[in-house]
Specification:
Helix content is about 40%, strand content about 20%. By secondary structure, the chain is of the alpha/beta class. It has 2 domains: about 10-260 and about 460-480, Aldehyde Dehydrogenase, Chain A, domain 1 (3-Layer(aba) Sandwich); about 260-410 and about 415-450, Aldehyde Dehydrogenase, Chain A, domain 2 (3-Layer(aba) Sandwich), CATH 3.40.309. The strands form 5 sheets. Strands 14-15-16-13-12-17-18 form a 7-stranded mixed beta sheet, sandwiched between helices. A hairpin with a 2-residue loop joins strand 1 (about 15) and strand 2. The radius of gyration is 23 Å and the shape is globular. The N and C termini lie far apart (about 75 Å). The structure holds succinic acid (SIN). The site of succinic acid has 8 residues, from loops.
């Protein structure tokens, strides 16, 4: 059955370029991961469509940048209101193309909208500085100006929030943008564009190009000198390619890449709170987030109790089609994700790990994986090094604070880290010692529009959300005016 919405016209079937909806000779079939059914067909954009989106963004830039920050903020505020007003339709579109449970989809619309709201306010706060002059009769100031035309490449796991976290600060700053959403989840992006147009975002300011050829879109962005900034969320491998390709033009870059988050439970932790936090962190979006806990380090004195309680909680999670109310774990995005996750689990079990619960494909269907807890996992197993991106929690045992901090940091990634402890000295010591852009203490989630999100090491650089997210789209210009006393 086709997807039923209150506003059926939010379901679009082509890229949005210069306020026109494009058609094409070939289509992308958007599949529902819960059933394999086709949700919609969307025109597959070619290289010339991407170039024409850059033309539109370049043409729109001077007048958008010339608007007052207050005017841009007011348009963004209307976009926020429209996204919230259409939350239910947007959540249904998201569940149909991405598979996450309805409750999580609604939460993502709120989360995604929060970036638009935040930057509708922050637009007016792109403050510069005035410096005490060092030269008589001189004036020294720093002003912030929009970077220009920006490209964004966004993933399928958060089809709304990863777009608004880039587009809202870009537009607030006075930049124009071309977004390339994942070809697996283009419908949410296109619905957002429709609402942006209704909010008054002018022609060419926000463009969405849907293409099955991500490498081609990346190349067109990187090879066009008019694109002054590229913001990417996705794998570290692709991030490195985009960096290389952008070197020629020295484009500004923001890279939100992979993670391998440790989740540490110290001996002074509140164990029930830690279990609840572990479930929240690991099983959000069926484990398909860059900040999901990937390695659980449990102090030896709590290990058995934690493992038993955690396994009970995980076994109780309701797996099914995300469109059904009450489902907590939906399908994985595609068949190859199941192969990857099961490969990691099987290899660990062969090497001596034990599946306390789960460990196999779920009876609900071939694209569903059983929520899994593995014990007796060791640092040398592949599952300790790679981002699992699925509903699998490997448990490791540790004895001392120094050892566990060393193990937690023994990864090329550095996006998020979690730990549970009550001792105030330990809380501060460990938070300082962990090598990651985000540290979350005594909670299983931290994401918000008000605080900076981003990583270190191979998890990338640049920050999204918060006041720092606006700076990613602004150039700082120093203006020195001399001879003012004449
Ligand atoms: C991500 O997985 O990249 C985003 C998660 C979040 O924003 O909380």
């Amino acid at each position: 059955m086709s997807l039923q919405l209150k506003r059926q016209d939010l379901l679009k079937n082509g890229s949005y370029v210069g306020a026109r909806w494009l058609t094409s000779e070939s289509d992308i079939s958007v599949l529902n991961p819960a059933s394999g059914d086709e949700v919609a067909r969307v025109a597959d954009a070619a290289a010339h469509d991407v170039s024409s989106a850059i033309d539109c963004a370049a043409t729109a830039f001077p007048s958008w940048a010339a608007k007052t920050a207050k005017e841009r903020g007011q348009i963004l505020r209307k976009w926020f209101d429209l996204v919230i007003a259409h939350k239910e339709d947007l959540a249904r579109i998201m569940v149909a193309e991405q598979g996450k449970p309805m409750a999580e989809a609604r939460a993502e619309i709120d989360y995604g909208a929060s970036f638009i709201e935040w930057y509708s306010e922050e637009a007016k706060r792109a403050y510069g500085d005035v410096y005490p002059t060092t030269v008589e009769g001189g004036r020294m100031e720093a002003v912030k100006q929009p970077v220009g035309v920006c490209g964004a490449i966004t993933p399928w796991n958060f089809p709304v929030a990863m777009i608004t976290r880039k587009a809202a600060p870009a537009l607030a700053a006075g930049c124009t943008m071309i977004v390339k959403p994942s070809e697996l989840t283009p419908l949410s992006a296109l619905a957002l564009a429709e609402l942006a147009e209704e909010a008054g975002v002018p022609q060419g300011v926000l463009n969405i190009v849907v293409s099955s050829d991500s490498a081609m879109v990346g190349q067109v962005f990187c090879n066009d000198a008019r694109v002054r900034k590229l913001s990417f969320t996705g794998s570290t491998r692709v991030g490195k390619i985009l960096m290389e390709q952008s070197a020629q033009d020295l484009k500004r870059l923001s890279m939100e890449l992979g993670g391998n988050a440790p989740f540490i439970v110290f001996e002074d932790a509140d164990i029930d709170a830690a279990v609840a936090g572990a479930v929240a962190s690991k099983f959000r979006n069926a484990g398909q987030t860059c900040v999901c806990a990937n390695r659980f380090y449990i102090h030896k004195t709590l290990y058995d109790e934690f493992a038993a309680k955690f396994s009970d909680a995980v076994s109780a999670l309701r797996v099914g089609n995300g469109a059904e109310e009450g489902v907590e774990i939906g399908p994985l995005i595609e068949a190859k994700a199941i192969d990857k996750v099961h490969g990691l689990v099987s290899e660990a079990v062969e090497a001596g790990a034990y599946a306390l619960c789960g460990g196999a494909v779920h009876d609900y269907g071939a694209q569903y994986y059983q929520p899994t807890v593995l014990t007796d996992v060791t640092q040398d197993m592949r599952i300790a090094r790679e981002e699992i991106f699925g509903p699998v929690a490997p448990l490791f045992k540790f004895s001392t604070e120094d050892d566990v901090v060393a193990m937690a940091n023994q990864t090329e990634y550095g996006l998020a880290s979690y730990f549970y402890a009550r001792d105030v000295g330990r809380v501060h010591r460990v938070a300082q010692a962990l090598h990651s852009g985000i540290v979350c203490v005594n909670a299983g989630g931290f994401s918000t529009e008000v605080a900076p999100f981003g990583g270190v090491k191979h998890s990338g650089f640049g920050r999204e959300a918060s006041r720092y997210g606006l700076d990613e789209y602004l150039d700082l210009k120093y203006v020195f005016v001399a001879d003012l006393n004449r």
